Each structure stands twice: as C-alpha cells, then as structure tokens.
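Private note to self, pasted from the team thread so I don't lose it. Backbone tokens:
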C-alpha cells in the first residue's frame, strides 16, 4: 500500500520518498494494503485514471459516506496520478474539518486504466467527561455553559484554548485578573479513542486599584475626572483611631466641605505612617476590568470635549503593580486649549427661518464649545424626548431630512459653524404592517395607531403609537418594535410594527372548610383580552374567546356564614368600533353577618349570645361611558357614570350613629370624571403623568321640599334616600432621573403624587350619611370596604379615626366609624426596576408619605399631617396581577420613650396600587 499524501505534504513526488509515515495507532486500525507491482513504472509516467472504488478506514464515530462526500472524490471521477491536484484538495478539505490527527490517501490497486483508493483517517479523541477543580460548582456550571462544553465533543487545541479564554474573561470581569488554567488529560480505557479533561483553575486574588493618578490636567481636577470613570474606581481606605474612635478617610482631592458634611476629620498623608492605628478597607467597586477601563478612558476624553477642550486626549496610560496583586493607574492627559462657539449660520432651510432654528438649537455665540450638546440639539440620533431640530422636521413628515454641522472657521479659541440642511420631500405613509400578534386581533392594535396610510409621516405619531400599544397591556412593552422603511423612489414610507404577546389574564383562587364556619375562599377570574362577539364560536374558546381587547371580570368570595360577595364587570373600550368610547357595566352584591359565630363563641366561653339575627347587605350596579377628547389635547378623557347602591341594615351598628342600625338606604348618583393620562406604560411608568378630577352628585331631594327640616326626622328615615356632593382630585407625575441605558431600559424613576377629597351636604337641612365618606390608614385590604366608602391607604399606619396626629390609632381612644369628609395625601416614591420581564416584573421603592383626614371643612388644615417613610417591593405576575409588600415607619406613632419598632407596620397589597 502506498501512502500518497501524509499530513502537510502537497507534492505528489514525496509520496514515494522516505518521509512517508504511518502513525502507530493508524497501523493498528488500518491494515496496510499491498502496493501494485508496477508502481515504479507508473510513478515515472503520470496518466489519467478513473476511480474504480474508494474506501474509508480508521473512523469510529463519523459517517463514512459523509466523509467521502467531504473529500470531493467519488467513483467514476477522472484523476491524474501521480501529480494530480485532486488528492491535495481532498486532504485539505478533510483536514479543514479539524476532526482528525492524521489524513492520508493510499493507492491500493491500478489496473486497466482504473485506480483503487483508500482514505486513512486518525480521529481526534472524544471528550467523555470534564471536570473543574479549584472553583465553586455554580461558577463551573456557568463557565461550562459559556464555553459550550458537552460530552462527546472532539478534543482539539481550539477547544482547550476556548475554555482557557472563557475562564480568563469570566474571572477578569469579576476582578480576578490573574486567573490561571491548567488542563490535565485522562485516558479512558473503557472507551476507544476517548478521554476526560480536568481543568485546574486558580483564580488568584482580586486585582484592586489602589490609586488613579492623572498628570497634565491643569483645568479639571482629579476628582471630576475620576467621577467619569464609572467602571474604574480606586479603593477607599478608612482609618479608625483607637483612642478617639474618629474615622479618617484616606482618599484623593476631596474638598473641605466633603469632610464636614460627613463628620470626618480631614486626612493627611502622615496617617499612613502611624502603626498603632487599626486600618480597615472598603473595596466597593475598586476591582479592575480591562473592558470597562477602555470605556472609561473614552469617557474622560468625552468629558473634556463637553467642557470645550475639543483637542483633549490621553497621551499615555500605564498600569503597574502597587503590590503583589493590586494596581496603580497613571494617565497622562493633554488638555489643549478651551474653545467657544462662534457664529452659527444656517443653509438649505425653507420650512423654518434662521431665527426659529436658532431658538430651537439653544446655543449662543460665546457658549463653551460642546460637540456632544450640538449634535444632541440637532438630533443627530433620534430620541423619544424630541425638542431637537431633526424632531421638528420629522414631526412634519420630513423623513428624508438630513442635517450636517460643518466647521467653517476657527478664530483663535472661537469656532464658527455652518449648519447645512437637506429637507427633502415630506414622506407619505404607504403601508402599515403588524406582526407578532398571535392572540390579539389586528384591528385591536390598528385602531390604536396614529400612523395612518395616506397621511404625512410624523415621528411624534410614531412614538405616540408605541405608547398606545404598550398601554393596551397585551404586549411586552420592552419588545414593541417600530421600523419606518423609506421608499426614496416615490417619497413614501412603510411602517412595520412588531409585538410580543404576554399573558395578562388573572386568576384568584383560594378555598377552605372549617367545621362551624363552613366554606371559605375566593374564586376570581379576569380576562383582559376578551371577545364577546365570539362567545358562541366553540373554536375560539381557550379557555374563553379572546382577541378583541374587551375586559370581563367575575369574582365570588365567601367567609362561611359571616361574609359573601359577588362581583361582575364588563368593559368595551371601543363601543361601536369606530371611536374610543369606553363602555362599562358592573354589578356587585355583598352580605355580612357580624353575629354569625356568636353561638359558637358563646358555647366556648360559657356565655349567652346577645343575638344571632343581624346583617348588612349591599347591592349595587354601575353603567359608565367614557369619551376621548381632542381638546385641550387627546390625552384627556371625559367619563359619565350612573351608579346605584342599596344598603340594608338589621341590628348592625357598625357606624356608631345612634338609631342607625336598622333600615334601608338608597344611593343614586351621577358621576363626572375628567382624566388625563400620558404615562408611557401601565405597570412600571418611566415618564408621563396622570390627572383625575371627579364630581359626584346625588339628586338634591331636599331642594324639592324647601320647607322641611330633614334633621328632625328619625335617623333611619333621614338616610332612606342619601344626598351629597363629592369631589376628588388626584395627580401623579413620573420623572426618570436618568436616561434608560442598555437593552434593559432600567433607570431610577421618581413618582410624586398629591390627592384631595371632599364630601358635603347641599344644605343644612339634611344630615350627611356615613356612606361615601373617606377612610384613612391601613393597606386597603384589611379595611371594612364592603360599603360605599373611599379607602385612602397610608403605609406605616393602621386605620385611624381622628385628625390629631399626636393620638396613635392603638392608644385606646374611642373609635368613630363615621369616617372623614375631607382628606389630603402627598406621596413621593423613588422606584427602580429589578426585572422588566413581562412574565415577572419586579421593582423596589422607597417612599415618603403624608396624609390626614378631617371631620369637616372647618377642621381642615393641609399642614396637619401624619408622616411616614419606608421601603417596599412590587411584583407583577400576569396570572395574579400586582402584588406588593411595604414596610413603613409611622413617625407620629412613635411614643414617648419608645423607638422605631413601636411605629413600624408591614402592609400587603394585592391586585391594585393603594390609593
């Protein structure tokens, strides 16, 4: 048998030389064939032969037919032997697969113009196991996933090098810049051509940054430059004096007021030489990360540019060891001189005049040169905030608009600019396409869009459409895509919207059984994307017909014999399908018996039950119609609603009003609500506001009989037909404290809210009933909310019944259940999202609240408030809605000589944000 091409040899002449080799393993797995007898004559006379047969030897795991196909050789092909390049290409093709330690081709027979070939292969060993030593299992699993390690993978040098690279990067990102990896190979005698790999990892010590030193920064101090290096921080050292217990902070270039603010003594370098002092260190984020360091150097230069130093650059940077593991960083800076804006002229503008564009730009001659600010004001990169020149043009359809700032002169330290505009034609929307809505019908999305085919393109309409789709609540707001596709040829634009459905139906289910009590529990379902028109089509039920954007809610709750309630509601957001007219109808009924278990407890305590015959029943219904307004803007909605409640009392004296424990009360009222909502999304708003002003009126029954004094009637008759007028005002603002960064769009958001309510009589000839009033404190769940009363929660406090903040709710004072007629509340929350995943949205918050209720307007004092502060978490789970936990401290609950523990309260919320 003659080997034609050993690995790495391409010349056919070498096939017969003494350099031909066959590995020992190959000799064991590929029996040698006998070479043809006339080989010397053949080698001296290259001829064309037809391949009669090809065999593959030496493979154990790979498919021979596939390998033969990869070689490019097949039976019937014409080849030149010796000297033909077909053999060279075949070996190169197989070798490029990186699966073999050796590739050779043998000529086993030549006869009658035909040639028989054998491809001899030595496979790379397979990895039947791998193991990491020296690190935690969780870290090993993470590294294995990142490196793509799997049993059965071919062991190649590239695989080993990849694992080493992944380990180095994994630990470098965690601050371990000196991690090492050693690989041990272990042969597996139980399996042919297989081995196990053991990765011995030593991550070493963390590489910390001791000092960052700047050189050449004459105009900007070190502290400001270091502040820009968010990912590269030097460690801060603290020194504790053993006698005075004063804390010294050894850090660079802190101003005097820094030390005064935090009560520290200003450090000196002499502290480092005082051996008796006990030193401890706070490392925070002082680890060194090469990738972040490169980014931070660019941020330093950008900061210089923003301060007018357009020629600033880092001449040289050096990292060197300060000790066995830590680093010092030296950066040599060339600041250059400071520049200022000179004359700014405009060219090519016809839509807006020079003066208008100059006013929008907001940069005047003499302002410090800042290229980043200039490009932001010009709108070189599209932003949803708007207010830039590109935005103004885009809002009027100039999709093909281009703008370029050109330096036309530098006079000393002054730079003149000419802003060149190419307005182009106004683009008309041609097609609007929607994709990704697997459950929701397309018309539900399309009716929310402000981008209509045939109308002029507007960036403001595009952004507004995004907001409207997000506020439907059916889609992941982080995955809504908007892609304008310009058609330059005809001056039109197509717009592609993409959405990702998310689960938003909710289920509430609990059940129990307790002897004398009976059945307890709750069953509630809310379908937020219901379809009434498909209710008789079986094929649309999954589990109910859906896709038309309607809302159906049903809830049944029971606490045995003591309490039960039924609730039903239905909402159609587009009544008639052509305009945003929201129609809602609801019905609810509840029953409460405070004496249900009186016999049970009387038997336990050997007492006589006072009565077992008493209850409080509530039945109500509501019909409302909301209409979107176009003035003052189309964020406004006007809602009309007609509401009716009937209350039946029997031996029920919860309200503390003498004589009002039996009877029937009827509450018919008309409510008008003017609301405005511009929040970007419902679950975690990052911007926008909510305003609500409502007025609620019952018929003025007393006006129809002006000579009658209803206050002299028996109390049970006074409340037969309730009359009142009630006003509510709510305002909420959401302000992002930074621009959302990265793909997760996470940012701190400040929520500020103010709320006010007032209920009163029409005249002094009537008595204001206990229904419709305000109840303050608590979390809204534990309060008695089965009657018509507005529950105004306040974290850090239980329900309170007096306006005096010095009286604690737990102080044993008499409880007055009549409720308040006036209240105000102020809220400030700092929020941060931990997860914006629609299947599990999680955010934390810190809050400050102040609120109080008042018996009447004469007692009203907006500055006499109960104050609280605390922290909380919110979890939005599609199946259960919004869950919340808050831990609040009621400052006015702190008793004399007591502590914060006496004023703390843990509250829970379910399904809604507390009012």
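Design output:
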């Amino acid at each position: 048998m003659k080997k034609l091409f050993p690995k790495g040899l391409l010349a056919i002449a070498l096939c017969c030389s003494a350099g031909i080799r066959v590995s020992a393993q190959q000799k064991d797995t590929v029996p040698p064939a006998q070479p043809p007898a006339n080989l010397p004559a053949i080698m001296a006379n290259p001829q064309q032969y037809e391949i009669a047969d090809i065999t593959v030897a030496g493979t154990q795991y790979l498919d021979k037919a596939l390998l033969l196909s990869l070689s490019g050789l097949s039976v019937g092909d014409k080849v030149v032997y010796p000297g033909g390049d077909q053999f060279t290409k075949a070996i190169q093709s197989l070798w490029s697969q990186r699966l073999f330690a050796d590739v050779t081709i043998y000529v086993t027979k030549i006869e009658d113009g035909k040639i028989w070939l054998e491809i001899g292969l030595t496979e790379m060993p397979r990895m039947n196991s791998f193991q990491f030593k020296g690190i935690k299992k969780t870290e090993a699993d993470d590294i294995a996933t990142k490196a793509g390690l799997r049993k059965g993978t071919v062991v190649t040098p590239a695989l080993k090098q990849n694992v080493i690279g992944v380990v180095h990067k994994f630990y470098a990102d965690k601050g371990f810049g000196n991690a090492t990896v050693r690989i041990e190979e272990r042969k597996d005698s139980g399996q042919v051509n297989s081995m196990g790999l053991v990765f011995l990892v030593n991550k070493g010590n963390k590489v910390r940054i001791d000092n960052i030193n700047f050189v050449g920064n004459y105009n900007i101090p070190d502290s400001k430059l270091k502040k820009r290096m968010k990912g590269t921080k030097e460690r801060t050292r603290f020194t504790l004096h053993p006698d005075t217990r004063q804390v010294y902070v050894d850090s660079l270039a802190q101003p005097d007021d820094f030390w005064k603010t935090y009560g520290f003594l200003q450090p000196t370098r002499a502290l480092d030489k005082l051996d008796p002092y006990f030193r401890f260190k706070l490392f925070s984020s002082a680890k060194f990360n090469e990738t972040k360091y490169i980014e931070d150097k660019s941020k330093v230069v950008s900061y210089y540019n923003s301060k007018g130093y357009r020629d600033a650059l880092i001449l040289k940077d050096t990292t060197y060891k300060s000790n066995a593991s830590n680093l010092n960083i030296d950066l040599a800076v060339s600041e250059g001189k400071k520049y200022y804006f000179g004359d700014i002229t405009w060219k090519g503008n016809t839509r807006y005049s020079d003066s208008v564009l100059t006013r929008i730009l907001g940069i005047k001659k003499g302002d410090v040169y800042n290229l980043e600010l200039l490009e932001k004001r010009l709108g070189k990169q599209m932003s949803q905030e708007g207010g830039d020149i590109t935005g103004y043009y885009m809002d009027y359809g100039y999709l093909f608009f281009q703008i370029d700032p050109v330096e036309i002169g530098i006079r000393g330290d002054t730079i003149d600019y000419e802003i060149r505009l190419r307005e182009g034609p106004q683009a008309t929307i041609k097609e609007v396409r929607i994709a990704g809505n697997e459950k929701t019908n397309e018309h539900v999305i399309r009716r929310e869009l402000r981008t209509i085919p045939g109308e002029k393109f507007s960036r403001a309409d595009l952004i507004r459409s995004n907001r409207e789709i997000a506020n439907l609540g059916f889609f992941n707001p982080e995955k809504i895509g908007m892609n304008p596709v310009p058609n330059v040829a005809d001056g039109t634009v197509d717009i592609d919207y993409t959405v990702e459905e998310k689960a938003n139906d909710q289920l509430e289910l609990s059940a129990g059984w307790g002897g004398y009590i009976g059945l307890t529990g709750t069953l509630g379902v809310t379908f937020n994307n219901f379809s009434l028109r498909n209710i008789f089509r079986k094929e649309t039920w999954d589990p109910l017909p859906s896709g038309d954007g309607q809302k159906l809610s049903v809830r049944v709750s029971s606490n045995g014999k003591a309490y039960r309630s039924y609730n039903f509601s239905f909402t159609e957001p587009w009544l008639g399908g052509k305009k945003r007219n929201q129609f809602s109808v609801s019905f609810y009924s509840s029953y409460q018996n405070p004496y249900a278990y009186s016999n049970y407890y009387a038997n336990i305590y050997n007492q006589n039950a006072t009565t077992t015959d008493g209850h409080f029943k509530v039945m109500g219904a509501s019909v409302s119609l909301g209409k979107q307004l176009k003035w003052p803007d189309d964020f406004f909605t006007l809602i009309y609603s007609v509401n009716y409640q009937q209350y039946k009392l029997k031996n029920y004296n919860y309200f503390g009003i003498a004589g009002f424990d039996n009877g029937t009360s009827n509450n018919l009222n008309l409510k008008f609500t003017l609301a405005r909502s511009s929040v970007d999304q419902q679950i975690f708003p990052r911007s926008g506001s909510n305003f609500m002003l409502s007025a609620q009126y019952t018929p003025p029954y007393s006006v129809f009989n002006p000579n009658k004094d209803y206050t002299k009637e028996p109390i049970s008759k006074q409340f037969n037909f309730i009359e009142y007028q009630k006003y509510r005002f709510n305002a909420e603002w959401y302000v992002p404290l930074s621009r959302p960064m990265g793909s997760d769009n996470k940012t701190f958001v400040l929520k500020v809210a103010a709320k006010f309510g007032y209920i009163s009589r029409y005249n002094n000839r009537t008595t204001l009933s206990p229904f419709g009033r305000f109840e303050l404190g608590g979390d809204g769940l534990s309060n008695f909310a089965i009657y018509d009363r507005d529950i105004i929660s306040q974290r850090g406090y239980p329900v309170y019944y007096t306006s005096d903040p010095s009286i604690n709710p737990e102080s044993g004072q008499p409880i007055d259940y009549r409720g308040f007629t006036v209240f105000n509340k102020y809220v400030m929350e700092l929020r941060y999202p931990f997860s914006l995943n629609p299947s599990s949205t999680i955010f934390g918050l810190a809050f400050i609240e102040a609120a109080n209720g008042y018996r009447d307007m004469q007692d009203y004092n907006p500055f006499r408030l109960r104050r609280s502060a605390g922290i909380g978490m919110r979890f939005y789970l599609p199946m259960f809605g919004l869950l919340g936990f808050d831990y609040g401290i009621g400052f006015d609950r702190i008793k004399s000589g007591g502590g914060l523990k006496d004023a703390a309260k843990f509250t829970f919320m379910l399904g809604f944000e507390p009012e």
